[in-house]
Amino acid sequence: MRPRGRHVLGGTAILVSAVVFLVPFAFVVLTAFKDRAQAAELDFSWPHQFRFARNLVEVVTARDYTLVIAFANSAILTVASVAVMVVLAAMTAFVLQRRPSRWTRLVDFLVLSGLIIPPAVVPTIRVLQGLGLFRTMTGLILVEVAFGLSFCVLLFRNFLATVPRELDDSAVIDGAGPLRVFFLVVFPLMRSVAVTAVLVQSVVVYNDFTNPLYFLPGDRNVTVQLTLYNFQSQYGTQYNLLFTNILLITVPPLLAFLVANRRIVAGMTAGAVKG
Question: Can you tell me where the transmembrane regions are (predicted)?
């Protein structure tokens, strides 16, 4: 392709990305700054009166500070789920890559199935009820770990294929056991991929709507994404408050992406190109 053609293609891609991502975000910001009457028009116009501070106070204090509780619940859910998910996926990938056996193909099939087969809600609820974990944060954490484990395993295993086995052998000769080999030798080498998995899965868990809705019902168990559902059902046509709520819960993952964008790309590239 000629250089001019590449520039045209790149400019077109940037323009399309701006229209798809920036225009909706600008609409959310403008609507969050409007009063109730103007926001109900749902048009792309400049606010007549800037009411963001008032809208912010009403959103935060609505329903006995439900949004504050939701942020706390989402923080607990995200940190716990991602921590368990990353460590467990790294250990699983280490065993599959370094200790192949007759069960390896079956485990690979199950890992790929986790990416392809959609989750079954009713059987999962029955299992959680049988374990006494339905409507509990622990049960939802286990669900999030199970649904995100396949992606992390594939990511870690693809990167582990680039790590020389001689490092493992040297540690074993020095008297290190399997756990020490993994945590002291191999896992530190996977830092770039681990950062990528943490950031990607944190956004996925934080933005999850369906799993908290099905497996963690209740007003006190609400997460940030569920506040959109509850808030809209409560206020109906008060779009200024609804879009203010959307703006508040969009800020954390947006900041995480802006800060760690290069790390995400580096981790994904390390696992894809070297593998």
Answer: 12-33, 65-94, 106-125, 137-160, 181-206, 239-260
* DSSP summary character for residue 101: -
Contact 141, 84 (CB under 8 A): yes
Which residue has tokens 């099939």? Answer: 109
Go through the domains of the chain in sequence order and give each one's CATH number.
Answer: 52-273 (1.10.3720.10)
What are the tens digits of pLDDT across the range 225-268? 888 876 665 556 688 888 999 999 998 888 877 777 666 666 55
| Rg of the Cα atoms in the chain | 23
Q: What tens digit of pLDDT does each residue of 29-78 get?
A: 999 999 988 988 888 889 988 999 999 999 999 888 889 999 999 999 99
Residues 6 or more apart from 128 whose CB is under 8 A from it? 134, 139, 143, 215
Measured CA to CA, the distance from residue 155 to residue 272 in angstroms comes to: 8
Q: pTM of whole model > 0.70?
A: yes
Report the alpha-carbon distance of residue 146 to residue 125 in Å, rounded. Answer: 14
Estimate to the nearest angstrom the gap between the alpha carbon of 39 and the chain centroid: 30
